Structure formats: C-alpha cells, structure tokens
C-alpha cells in the first residue's frame, strides 16, 4: 500500500484578510485567502481530499508564509518560492503563461488563449484561471475580459481590484 502524501500548511494575516499557504514535497501548492481561517482549512480539505493535511508552524514553513504575504503586500518584490502547480496539462500551460505577466500589466483571456496556440479557447483559459489554487503567486488577477472589464475572481472581485491597483502603483 502506498503511503498517503502529506501537505503542510500555515496560516497568517495579510491586508486581504486571513491567508493560508500549503506546501507539498515539490513546493507551494496552494495560497488561499478568505474571511476566516476555518474556511481556508475547509477549502484546503476540498482541494486536496486524498492527502494528509498537517498544520506546520515551524520556522521553515513560517518563512514561506512570510514570503507569500510579503509578495501579496509588495507584488513587485521578487518571489523565490518553488511552486507545485497541480492541475490538468491545459491548466498548467495557462498558469505558466500567467507567471510571465509582469506586476502592473493586465492581459485578457483571449490574449492568453492566443499565446498558447488555441485562440478560441478563451473560455477554457478563464476556467483555468478560476481553478488556480495558488492565488497571487500565480497571478490570475492580472487577467480580465478583452473589453477591459474585470470578470469573476475566485478570491473576490474587490480583492482583484485591490491587487491590480497595488501592482499599478509599483
């Protein structure tokens, strides 16, 4: 029988509210924010139902949490965290493109679809952004409708606007 995988997590507070960072043996696999720590942990259980989740407040884990929070607060600050982007091949392809978008720059779902060679897949790109479990670090908040209008954001429309304004200032 295979050993169950373990994901370690820690919680803290950012200007956007409570935040949770989760780390697999390959890197950061989740960054969530919500109105309560209880909801964050419940969301983590839903996202990773077949792994053991372990609260970890050791110095190495709190250092990762602090780096993630620092990036939320100052998005122009370089990020030096290994990411473990767990999703379908298409989702990972979209998320890789998101990582190339500089802070302060906004793009559209259509533009990303074109960049990955599937110009008609803009709805699938939007769905991949909505499924992104690594908020802010994989910057789906930098993507909006081609009309320039902000559309849905899993972590809240107000948070999307806050992040975009914060990045525009840097």
UniProtKB/TrEMBL annotation:
Record carries keyword DNA repair: yes
EC number: 2.1.1.63
Start and end residues of each Methylated-DNA-[protein]-cysteine S-methyltransferase DNA binding domain: 89-168
Superkingdom: Bacteria
GO biological process, one term: methylation
Keywords: DNA damage, DNA repair, Methyltransferase, Transferase
Catalytically driven reaction(s): a 4-O-methyl-thymidine in DNA + L-cysteinyl-[protein] = a thymidine in DNA + S-methyl-L-cysteinyl-[protein]; a 6-O-methyl-2'-deoxyguanosine in DNA + L-cysteinyl-[protein] = S-methyl-L-cysteinyl-[protein] + a 2'-deoxyguanosine in DNA
EC main group: transferase
GO terms, molecular function: methylated-DNA-[protein]-cysteine S-methyltransferase activity
Pfam families: DNA_binding_1
Family per record: Belongs to the MGMT family.
Name by which UniProt lists this protein: methylated-DNA--[protein]-cysteine S-methyltransferase
Organism of provenance: Methylophaga frappieri (strain ATCC BAA-2434 / DSM 25690 / JAM7)
């Amino acid at each position: 029988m295979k050993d169950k995988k373990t994901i370690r997590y820690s919680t803290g507070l950012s200007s956007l509210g409570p935040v949770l960072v989760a780390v697999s043996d390959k890197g950061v696999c989740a960054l969530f924010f919500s109105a309560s720590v209880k909801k964050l942990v419940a969301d983590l259980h839903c996202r990773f139902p077949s792994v053991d989740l372990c609260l970890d407040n050791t110095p190495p884990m709190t250092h990762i949490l602090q780096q993630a929070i620092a990036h939320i607060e100052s998005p122009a600050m370089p990020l030096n965290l290994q990411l473990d982007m767990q999703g379908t091949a298409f989702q990972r392809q979209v998320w890789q493109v998101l990582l190339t978008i500089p802070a302060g720059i906004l793009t559209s779902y259509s533009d990303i679809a074109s960049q990955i060679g599937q110009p008609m897949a803009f709805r699938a790109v939007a769905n991949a952004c909505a499924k992104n479990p690594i908020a802010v670090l994989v910057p789906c908040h930098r993507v909006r409708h081609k009309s320039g209008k902000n559309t849905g954001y899993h972590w809240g429309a107000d948070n999307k606007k806050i992040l975009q304004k914060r990045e525009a200032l840097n």
